[in-house]
Amino acid sequence: MAILIVGEKPSVSRAISSVVGANATKKGYTEGNGYIVSWCVGHLVGLKFPNDYGNGWNQKWSFSQLPMIPDNWLFQITDSTKAQYNLLKNLMNKDEVTEIICATDADREGECIFRYVYNMARCRKPVKRLWISSLEESAIRKALYNMKPMSAYDNLFNAGYARARADWLVGMNGSRLFSVRYGGKLNIGRVQTPTLAMIVQRDAEVNGFVKQKYYTADLNCGAFTLSSARIDDEKSADALVSACYGSTVTISSVKREVKTDKAPKLYDLTTLQREANKAFGYTAQQTLDYTQSLYEGKLVTYPRTDSRYLSDDMLQTALEVTKLCDSYFGFGISHTPDIKKVINNSKVSGHHAIIPTNSIVTADLSSLPTGEKNILTLIAAKLICATAPAHKYEAVKLTGICNGTEFTATGRTVLDMGWKRFIRQTDKEKPDEKALPAVSEGQTFTVAASKGEHFTSPPKPYTEDTLLSAMERAGNEDYDDDTEKKGLGTPATRAATIESLVKNGYVERDGKQLRATDRGKELIKVVPNEVKSAKLTAEWESKLQQIEHGELPEAVFMSGIQHFIADMCRKYGSVDKSVSFSDGGHEPIGKCPKCGADVVKGKFGWYCKGKCGMNIAKVYGISLSDAQIKGLLDGKSTSYTSKGKKTIVCPEIVENPYNGKMYYQWKTERGK
Predict the structure, then answer these.
(1) Which of these, 247, 211, 272, lies nearest to 465 by C-alpha position?
(2) What's the distance, CA 530 to chain centroid?
(3) What are phi and psi of 597, to 5 degrees?
């Protein structure tokens, strides 16, 4: 008799294998000590695409197909991982296997990954759930002792399955509906499209901003400067400067107040992604990949979390890890870490905040890749800061009166650096206001007055840092900082949403900035508010959380999504020629040498918008670089070498008949 354990990835399963003693390596699994340990490779099974249902959905896209709402949802095995699925199916149904342990990632997606395979394999054997947030041996042993039946996580699966079907309904129906309506291939997504709408709106605000000049009258008092309020009229500013020059200013008020900046909370995934982008320029996906690798290396706890607190049973562990971080990263703390500040059971649902593990003691941290090392250092620093004393300072505001006008100056003096002593240099804020000298009420100064010129600041384009923040807060503007936010997507999916926008040509990266392409702007221009509303999608995400917590039946949520789709298809199920949607996501780089139409970049490379049959992007199957294509369009020859032979590509075109049709390509001269 044996117990089968199914993990989500080989690396996670290997960690479990070493704990349960399944040390004999087989093809696709390990076994030993009464256990068989195997794994999925991400999703082995997923929802079928519309073309696989029949119902006429596999025909050319048309309004008559819509809405596509399956009576029975069908699943398919992923072609690239079919062999691993078949192995798992055989293991699940093996006579000697009497029990199964689900050890996929402890979240919605992990639950779906396992149950899709379990259901597709028609397995009916009892299943227990292994719920772990760390791959350390002690954490795995504790989780094995505290396993629950799979049924205890039915609501988690219901939320994940509802999310998958909602994304299918919105994405598949929306993409077909608006592609047919506007005569161009469009990609619609439940989270992706509202996120794109936010980027487009921000770009419009940046591009439409008109800076305005304003002035202040500044009084030089020697050791400090007093400034007037904002003055929009330059003549009024000049008059005030002239009236005050050489005059006496009297200090009318000196206000001093001791203030504190509380220590920050620990990292959830979104906050870690934001700060890694700010500090190192990492994309959200890069940060997730680095953190996942650290997790699989047993150096940090589970990354896909939306909590910034620890549970009370972790108090002693967290204290030990904090001391280890101080020792191994050289923070040099002199205070006693206040672990209780980061403990809050009510703010921990599935997973606690991300912290390092005790395994940093035995790991060779110097051999870590740079990205992983930087992320681990950030996580360690956050634990040190979160358990450190508050930052304290004295804020001072001086008010002076000169010629009947009020002038002010502010400053601050640090009393205790507290947690700010331990933040990384790249994370430090702008320099604090300078300390002001000791000044008393009634004191006078003879001043030299001058005019200060200033400009209003434009809004800034989104970076991954600020976009992740906007996604997290979307639809939650009225809540305070401690409210559990749902926003657009989840911590586990936001990185993939951004990457999808870039991959589909709707957004491009410009350094750290994320800017909408012309293609992205056109998409948002043609789709209605129902599709691009961040508030609506955030409400859906909130309902998925309610399903997960057992507060809302998933059938109620799905009924709402189906009605939404049906209404949308009725409302927009007609052709609209008032908008010309360009398939190109970039500006043209030249004209087609055959028909003179613009050459633009699409999903599969540069092409002629005139669709005249000219192959712009390839020569004999070899893809040309952007620079080569631009050169050819500018009338310059280029070349490439393949299999030891050099080919010169000329900026003229030649005919190339194929399958009864005439195609055109660049003229070539083959060398030896």
Answers:
(1) 272
(2) 23
(3) -75, 165
Q: How far is CA 42 from CA 39, 110, 225, in A?
A: 9, 9, 61
pLDDT band for 587, please (50, 70, 90 cuts).
low
Contact 134/298 with Cβ under 8 angstroms? yes
387-435 confidence digits (pLDDT tens): 999 999 999 999 999 999 999 999 999 999 999 999 864 444 455 578 8
- Cα–Cα dist 648/669, whole Å: 5
Q: What is the pLDDT of residue 456?
A: 93
Query: How far, in Å, CA of 182 to CA of 195, rounded?
Result: 21
d(CA 147, CA 125): 16
Start-to-end Cα distance in the chain: 66
Q: How wide is the angle at C-alpha 396 spanned by C-alphas 392 and 401, nearest 5°?
A: 175
Q: Are 292 and 303 in contact (CB under 8 A)?
A: yes
DSSP annotation of 341: G
- What count of Cα atoms within 13 Å lies in the side-chain half-sphere of residue 365? 20
- What pLDDT, in 10s, does the model give residues 227-265? 999 999 999 999 999 999 999 999 999 999 999 999 999
Contact status, residue 400 vs residue 372, Cβ threshold 8 Å: no
Residues 486 and 109: their CA atoms lie apart, in Å, by 17
Buried b (16+ CB within 10 A) or exposed e, 203-220: beeeeeeeeeebbbbbbe
Provide the 10 A C-beta neighbour count for residue 198: 19
Name the residues annotated as catalytic: 302
Ranges assigned E (strand) in 527-644: 590-591, 598-602, 605-608, 618-619, 622-623, 638-642
Instruction: Name the amino acid, one letter, at 49.
Output: F
Name which residue leads in pLDDT, 662 or 658.
662
Q: Kindly provide the residue ranges of all beta strands, DSSP E only, lying in 83-164, ordered along the sequence.
A: 97-103, 127-129, 148-149
Structure tokens that stand for 108 in this block: 């919605």
Q: Is 464 helix (H, G, I), strand (E, B) or coil?
A: helix
Alpha-carbon span 388 to 263, nearest angstrom? 7
Rg of the chain in Å (alpha carbons) = 31
Query: Measured between alpha carbons, how far is 238 from 10 in angstroms, rounded to an integer?
Result: 73
Residue 248's nearest CA partner among 227, 221, 224 is 221
* C-alpha dihedral sign at 296, 298, 299, 305: positive
563: its two tokens = 């009605």
Q: Which of 367-376, 399-408, 610-619 has the lowest mean pLDDT?
A: 610-619
CA-to-CA distance for 18 and 26, rounded, in angstroms? 14
What is the pTM assigned to this prediction? 0.79
Residue among 235, 217, 223 at smallest CA distance from 403? 217
Q: Which amino acid is at 398?
A: L
Q: Taking Cα atoms as reference points, which of 520, 518, 495, 523 lies closest to residue 506?
A: 520
Q: Residues 136-189: pLDDT tens digits? A: 888 899 999 999 999 999 999 999 999 999 999 999 999 999 999 988 888 899
What the block records as the tokens of 495 is 């990185």
What is the β-pairing status of strands 618-619 and 29-32? unpaired
Helices within 100-153 (DSSP H only): 108-120, 137-145
